C-alpha cells in the first residue's frame, strides 16, 4: 500500500461543464470526496467577475450573483475549450477559457486547503478529468488550466475510465480473489457533454485490466441543451416573449428563466408535473405555468434521437450487440432523466444498470484512484492496466485541402503508422506539415481540428513528385502522439498529448 499523507495527498479533480468535484485517496478506505466550504460534494462550474471591486467568485455564489447581472457570469466554460485563447468578456474584463477553467480548479482546491492550517496542505499529485470525446487540443488546454492552478498535475484521465475505476474498485473489493471478465458500457450524460464508452474489464488475482473496445459521443450535447428546450416550452405556454427587448434586460430574463427550467427538469425526473413561477421575468410580466414530463420529453426529442443514433453507432464500431453487455454504468446528472433511463433499459435491460456508485461523484473518485496509481503503482496491491483507443482519426492535410488519414478512429493504443508523401509543385523550398484529427475526406472547421504544424525549411529545388516526405505517427500507452517527419535528410519530431 502507498503511504497516505493527510496534508500532502493525491487528488482527483472532476472538471465538469456544470458541476465539478474533488476527491482524495485514503489508504485502506479508498477515494473520499472533499466537500466544498458549503459542505457540498459538488461545486457549480460558474465564474462571476465583479468589476466594481475586481472580485472573482466561483460556485453557487457566482451563479446567484450572475442571475442578477448575467453579463458578469459564465456557465459551461468547458464547451469553449476548442479555442483556449479566445476572448471571454465578463463585466468588461477579458478572460480565456483556460484561465476560467483554472479558476474553477483553484476554487475547489482552495476549499480543500482551508480545512487545514494555512500553508500545510498541498497536493503531491493530481489527476484532472476530460470527456472521452475531447480532441487533442481540448485536452491540452485542460492540461494548461491544471498547470496554471499549480495542483501538481501528474495526469489526465478520460471521464468514463475514471467512472469505471470507481465501479471496479467496489466490485473488486467485494470479489478480491475471484477472477471474472465483464463488458461495461459507461453512459455519461452530463451538463454539457455526452460520452459513450465500452470497456472490457478483466479481474485476476493480481491485475485489474481495462480495455476500451469502442467510444463515441458529442461534446455539444447535455443538460444545458435540455434546459434551453424546456425554457422555450415555458415561454410558449406563458405567452411571454423576450423578442425585441434591450440586451441587458434580455440576459437577466433569460438567466432567470433557465434557472427555473433547470429546477423543472430535475423535478420532472421524480414527478409527472411541475409548477413554474418566474415573477417579474420582465418589469411588467410574470410567468406561471404547469409543465408536464411529457411536454419536457417532447421538447428534447431531437437530442433524444441523437443519443439513440450515437448508441447505435457504437454497436457498429465495436462489432458487438446489446446482449453482449454485462453492465451499464450511468454517470452524469442528465442520466437520471426517465426517458433516457428507459432508453437504456429498453436497449440493454434494466437488470444491467449499476447504481451503487454516485453519478455525481464517481468521476472524481475514479480520478483520485488513478492519481494514487500514478503516484505508486503498488497502492492497491494489484496491477492496473489501461488500454485505450483513438476517438478521432489522425492524419495530414494534403493538396486540395484533403485529409489523409494515417491512424483511424477506434485504433487500439499503442500503434504506429508510416507513409511516404511527395510534393505537388515544382521547386518547393519549404513545407508546413499540418497534422489534423477528425473525420471526412475534406478538411473543414466543423469536422477537423488542427493539432499542430511541423515546418521543414531550406529544401533543394526539385520537380513535383521527386521529393520523398516520410511521415510516421506513433501513439503510446499514455495516448501521446509522436510525429516524425523526414525530408531530404532533415528529421523533425513533435510530441502531442493526445489525451
From the alpha-carbon coordinates, what is the Rg to the nearest angstrom? 24 Å
Query: Low-confidence stretches at least 5 residues in length (pLDDT < 50)?
Result: none
Termini separation comes to 28 Å
Query: Quick one: how many beta strands?
Result: 27
The structure class reads alpha+beta
| CATH architecture annotation name of the largest domain | 2-Layer Sandwich
Oligomeric state of this protein:
single chain
Using the alpha-carbon principal axes, give the shape: globular
CATH topology of the largest domain: Nucleotidyltransferase, domain 5
Task: Identify the CATH homologous superfamily of the largest domain.
Answer: ATPase, nucleotide binding domain
CATH class type of the largest domain: Alpha Beta
Beta-strand percentage? 25-35%
Average pLDDT reading = 88
**Portion of residues within helices:** 25-40%
The biggest sheet, with number of strands, parallel, antiparallel or mixed sense and barrel status, is: 6 strands, mixed
Number of helices, counting only DSSP H or I runs of 4 residues or more? 10
Number of domains: 4
Give a brief description:
This protein has helices at about 60-70, 95-115, 135-150, 160-175, 225-240, 245-265, 295-300, 300-320, 340-350, 360-375, and strands at about 10-15, 20-25, 30-35, 40-45, 45-50, 55-60, 75, 90, 95, 125-130, 155-160, 180-190, 195-205, 205-220, 275-280, 285-290, 325-330, 355, 385, 395-400, 400-405, 415-420, 430-440, 450-455, 470-475, 480-485, 490-495. The protein is of the alpha+beta class.
